[in-house]
Structures are given as C-alpha cells and as structure tokens.
Amino acid sequence: MSKSVKNYYAGGNTAKGFYDLFSSSLKQLDRIFILKGGPGTGKSTLMKKIGEKWGQQYDTEYIHCSADYGSIDGVIIPELSAGVVDGTAPHVIEPQYPGIIEEYINLGEAWDSSKLQENKQEVFYVKEQIKKCYDEAYTIFAEALKIHDDWEKIFIENLDVYKAEELTNRLTDEFFATISLNKKANVVHRFLGAATPEGPIDFIENLTEDINKRYFLKGRPGSGKSTLLKTLAKRAEARGFDVEVYHCGFDPESLDMLIFRELGVAIFDSTSPHEHFPSRKGDEIVDMYEELIAPGTDEKYEEEIEHFSKKYAEKMKLATSHLKESNKLRNELESYYIQAMDYSIVEQKQLQIEKAIKEIEKMH
Fold first, then answer.
1. Can you say how many angstroms the Cα of residue 57 is from the centroid of all Cα atoms in its chain?
2. N or C, where is the chain less crowded by C-beta within 10 Å?
3. InterPro entries in the record, alphabetically (predicted)?
4. DSSP letters of 162-175?
C-alpha cells in the first residue's frame, strides 16, 4: 500500500522574479542527488520513478515545477533523509559538502552533442525567446503587485490595529495555550502554490488532508492575513513548535499558510486565487474583514476597489499568457534534446541512484 505524498513548490514565478526556497526544503537531508542536464533529458521522469518506487514503503514529498505543470523539480524521502533534485537553472543547486551529502548525476552524458550542434541556431533562438517571455511575465507581475499594494492601502487605513492584536492573541492561545516545547523548532519555507502557464495552482487540500483543525482566513487585500501569519509563525518558533511556512506564490514576502503538524493545526489565506471553503469537521472560518475592518469600507470605496480589482486581474492574465508562451517554447526546446538523447544511459543513471538509496536504507 502506498504511503502519503505531500506536494508543494520550492520555487516560483513571482513579482520579484524567480524566487527560490529550495535550500530550506533540502537542509534536513543527509544525501542529495543533484541532476544536471538540459531540458528533455528525463530529469522529471527519473525523479517520478524514484518517488513511485520508494513511495510504496515511505512517505514522499514531490517538489513541483512552476514552469511546467505535471513536471517535478524534486522528490524527497524524509524517513531516509534523502532526495533527488533538478539542479539546473533557474534553481541552480551548489553542493555544500560534495561527495558527502551532495552528489552530481550528469544526464548530459546521455546526449549526442553532434545532433545538438545540428540545431545549434534553433536552440539559441528558442532559449532567447523563453528568456524574453519570463522577463515580460516578471515585469507585468511587478506592475500587478504595485496595483495590489494600492488596493491594500484602502483596507490597511481602515483596519483596527487593536482588534488585530486581540485576534492574534486569541489564536495564539487557541493554538499553543501555555505550552512550550523543550527543543529547537524546525522551520521550513515553501510555496503552497505557484503562478504556472496554466494559471495559479495550489496544493492546500493535499498539504492539509491529515490536519484535524483548519482555519480559513477570509478577507480583502490588506486586511492583515499575512501579518497575522508572520506573528503566529514567530510565536510558534519561540515556543519550540515546528512550523511549515508557505509563502505567497505571487508576492514571496507575504505568507499564505502555516502548518503546525505537532498540533494538527493549519491556518491559511483562503481567498482568490486559492479560495477554499470548509468541507469537514474541524474547519473554521476567520473573517478578517468582519473582525478588523471598519464597517462600510467596501461600500465607501466601491469604485476604487472595482478599478484596482479589474486592473490587477488584467495584469495577471497578461503575465500568465507570457508563461503559457514560454511553456510552448520550452516544449520546442526539449524536442531538440530528446532527439539527441540515449535514454538507456539515463536508465543506468537511475539504477545508480537506486543502488545508493538502497545502501541508505540498510543504514536506517
């Protein structure tokens, strides 16, 4: 019987450009196999096969690819403290302890360079076009963030700071009571979702499927959701509780979710583009607008809110169209590498990794 699979992102296409949180997900591992090689060399397929094989016996974590929905950037087996990751751009992973913790696996050994040389100019051109798509998308996401900031100001200026502090204290008491754990907290940073060529994708339901108590934060931009989460994360860490911190896939400096697995508690921003609703016992809504924002704010600033909402949606749609175009080009780029690959060599590399993981198993 297969064990649990957790899905998340460790990198994302954000208003700050490509944002990388890989090091946080990998810091606990004793062995990391870093795959090198171009697009289409079979990195994602190899990692999925590793995940499927060891996922029959162990819980696994899949790090998803924000550039291509359906592809993965890594697979982790926490119980074995081992993982296999794509270490190519834009999330280049440099070994800290090469040969001891990290090991390079070069899938580039499986391609025929002479075949790639035949399509040299096409590869150069497509790579250049992909970069242009991402540059455009990141520029537009940054413009969308400025609009979002102006939208937020309306609600920030109408937020009751005293009530916000009261709410934070109430939730702190509900979560932790007077308990402190006599240990150092393990804090890991990830993304629950990402802006992808298919639009925004999130894994909230998967990440919280075994959580007994879920708090759904509702409210407008600027109603204090991220600030609340940042404070709760700090308080949990100070008390020794492990924290899974999930950053916003659009603005990585904002937070979207915290999970305290030791307590069986999750609290997350449940507004668009990752809007979810209570669906089981233990689910609770925390309406930040109702609790903290001056009554009548929506009505008073109706025109401005509608203006910002519309402009923001237009920018997000336009940025996503550039990501979609980049994905088409990426598929074209991969095709040049696929026709130059000898996948029997990739299979040998996979067996090499599997042999090493079996050795790790023996030591556990």
1. 25
2. N
3. P-loop_NTPase
4. HHHHHHHHHHHHHH
Here the tokens at position 347 are: 């299979």
Q: Which two tokens stand for residue 341?
A: 């690959």
**Is 80 exceeded by the pLDDT of residue 2?**
no
pLDDT, tens only, 103-156: 999 999 999 999 999 999 999 999 999 999 999 999 999 999 999 999 999 999
- Residue 59: pLDDT band (50, 70, 90) is very high
User: pLDDT (tens digit, 9 = 90+) per residue, 69-118?
Assistant: 899 999 999 999 999 999 999 999 989 999 999 999 999 999 999 999 99
Residues near 349 by beta carbon (within 8 Å), at least 6 away in sequence: 46, 105, 106, 107, 109, 110
- The string over 305-339, giving b where at least 16 C-beta atoms fall within 10 Å of a residue's C-beta and e elsewhere, is beebbebbeebbeebbebbebbbebbebbbebbee
Q: Which of left, alpha, beta for 240 (phi over 0: left; psi -120 to 50: alpha)?
A: left
Strand order from edge to edge, sheet including 82-86: 102-106, 31-36, 82-86, 72-77, 60-64, 5-9, 187-191, 243-247, 255-260, 265-269, 213-218, 283-287
- Full-model pTM: 0.96
Q: What does residue 239 show for φ and ψ, rounded to 5 degrees?
A: -95, 5
DSSP 8-state assignment for residue 87: -
Question: Which amino acid, one-letter code, is at 157?
Answer: E
Eight-state DSSP code of residue 123: H
What angle (nearest 5°) sits at the alpha carbon of residue 74, between those of residues 31 and 1? Answer: 90
> Cα(112)–Cα(115) distance, rounded to whole angstroms?
6
Contacts of residue 57, defined as CB under 8 A and 6 or more positions apart, other chains included, come to: 3
Question: Following DSSP, what letter does each residue of 260-276 receive, concatenated?
Answer: ETTTTEEEEE-STTS--
Which residues make Cβ contacts (< 8 Å) with residue 84, sequence separation at least 6?
A: 32, 33, 35, 46, 47, 50, 74, 75, 105, 353
